[in-house]
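Course assignment 3, question 2. Fill in each field.
Student: A.L.
Task: Predict the tertiary structure for the chain below.
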Amino acid sequence: MSGEDRDSVLCLGPVGIDIVMEGYAPTDPERLSTWAGPVEMRMLAAGSIGYVALALLGLGRSVALTSTVGDDHLGAELLRQLAAADVDTADIEIAAGPTSVAAYLRMFGDAKRPMVFRAGAYDPWPASDRVISAIDEHRPSAVVISGLLHYPEYASAHLGAVAAHARARRLPVIVDPQFPPLRRSRPWADDLVELLRNTTVLCCDELEGDHLFGSSDVDEIIAAGQRHGISTVIVKREHLGSVVDDGHSRLYQAAISLGAGVGSTIGSGDAFLAGLVDALLDDEPTTSLIARATATASVAITAPDGIRGVTAEEARRWRALVVAPHELRPHERASEHPILDRNGEAP
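Answer field:
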C-alpha cells in the first residue's frame, strides 16, 4: 500500500446533521392526520462521509475529512462532534447558509425510512484543487469518496481530477456513490467517466447501481463497473448479503443473521465501507475484505450507539460469525443466489 501513513485515510464527501426520531405512529392516513404522540429524538453528526470517518476511527485509523458545512449553529455542532471524536477537520470549509439536515422518521416500522432532508445551498465539498492539495499534504494511504450522487452535477465537475491525482500517487480510491435526490433517464455514470476509470473499488447497493448504470441487476452492475475500468465491484444487498467481483472471482457473502438484534440501520452501509477500507489497508485478500465489511456493518446495526459503537475489538468479535463466502460459478447469477445459512450451505 502506498503513502507515508499506513493508518491514514482521507475521506471526501458531503456531511450533515441527522435527526433521528424513534417511536410509534399509525400508518392509516385518516388516523395519522389527527395523531400526536411522543418520540425519542437524537441529533447525530455527520451523515454521509462523516459516518465513514467515525467508523474508521473506531477501527483504529486516523482520518482527515474534506467537506463543507454551513455557518449556522448546526454546522458548529457538527464540527464540535467530529473534533471531539478526533477527526481531523482542518480541511472542512465553512460556507454561508444553513447546514444540510436529514430527518429519519423511525415511527412506521422501517429501520430508516421515511427520510426527509434539506440540502445545503453551498458546494458540498471543496473544489478539486483544494482536495488535491489536501491529498498532497496529508499523504494518506487511501482516498474514500462517499455520498457523491447526493450532488451528481457537482461530483461530475470535481471528482474526476481528484481520483486521477490519487491514482497517480498510487493510492487506492474507494467509492460509495449513495443515492441522488432525483432520478433521470440517462445513467449518471455517463457523467462520471473519469472518476469511475480511476476508482479502485466501487461499493454500492442495487438502487445506487441502477442510478449509476441503468440496471439494478447485480451481474449487470458488476459488468458495467468493470467496463468503466473498476477492478473490484461490490454490491450490497442488505439482509441478502453482498457480492464482490475482483476480476478473478465472484463471491457471494451471506449477511450475519441478526434476528431480533436489528436496531437502526442508519450508517450501516457507511460502517460496511469502513470495514472494507480497514481490510484493504491491511492488504487482506478479497474474501477477507467482504467478511470484515459484513462484520463491521453488523456492529453498527446492533450497537446501542450505532456507528459510534464500531470498534476494532467488536469488529473482530463479529468477524468470527461471518460464514465463508461462496464462489459463484460462471453459470450462477449473483442476483438469484439463495441466502446461505450459518454452515455456509444453501437452505
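Instructor remarks: The mean pLDDT is 89. The longest strand covers residues 62-70.
Grade: pending
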